[in-house]
Amino acid sequence: MINDFFSKQSLLLVFIKKILGKDPFNYISVENNSKISYNGTLIKKYVSIISKGNSTIQIGDNVILENVVICCESNSTLVIQDNVVIKNTEIRVLNNSKSNIGVHTIIGSFKMHQTNIYINSGIFSTANRCKLFLEKIQVRFGGELSIGRYSGFGFFTDIRCDEKIQIGDYLLCSYHATIYDSNIHSIDPELRRKNIKNQFPNGLTDFVKPKTAPVLIGHNVWIGKYAAILKGCNIHSNSIVGLGAVLSNIKDSETKNYVSQKPRIF
């Protein structure tokens, strides 16, 4: 109720802004030769936008941000094009990364489920009119992730890109799906044990690029709930990946329907 009250720009909110000399519910910071630009109307509510370390954030016209954290730093660029809606999302673009969010794209959904987009030394782009209700996008080690127009992802879907993931137009992706072009961690047990010990109690972060292979997904593909598309897959246009199917190193040049596969190949 209190959020709805203040979102209507009540007289009390106007009074608070005047007394404090700033908006108490939104934070914008520009540091170290960086830029934040708005090309038109920006509607924001409970938003933090930070640009630092010679980075640039460019926001188009009629953009809506609500419960959003955006951080762009270390020679990085983030472009949010016109008519984009982002809610309940954290976006971090770091270390010489580039990100572009296409016109009329929708990111994030309800307050109990946050969407996280983490681009570290990589490239991430969506075409126009995408719908990203997923849980996480992570791009590292110079990876390149591109998503075609009108492609949509259901809740709790996870995309990890360390080399290249290319997704075509009109993708229909259900809930809890997984798309990885990488092993994520080393398959060397001694190295994993060493990293786990050194990084305890934090989660495991890899500083050496794990084994990868590009993932290519054509146009009009349907990915079912709990399906996993792993490194080395080439899924042809108009294919269907059935509920719970796990695919790895699939390279097909024709449309197919996948139900299951033999255990994945590392």
Helix content: 10-25%
Q: What is the CATH class designation?
A: Mainly Beta
How many structural domains does the protein architecture include?
1
Report the principal-axis shape. Answer: globular
Query: Major sheet, described briefly?
Result: 17 strands, parallel
Care to count the β-strands?
Answer: 26
- Report the C-alpha radius of gyration, rounded: 20 Å
| Amount of beta strand | 35-45%
Low-confidence stretches: 1-16
Q: Calculate the terminal CA-CA distance, rounded to whole Å.
A: 51 Å
List SSEs in N-to-C order.
HHEEEEEEEEEEEEEEEEEEEHEEEEEEE
Quote the CATH topology: UDP N-Acetylglucosamine Acyltransferase, domain 1
CATH A-level architecture: 3 Solenoid
Which structural category fits the helices and strands?
mainly beta
Task: Give the number of helices.
Answer: 3
On the 0 to 100 scale, the average pLDDT is 88
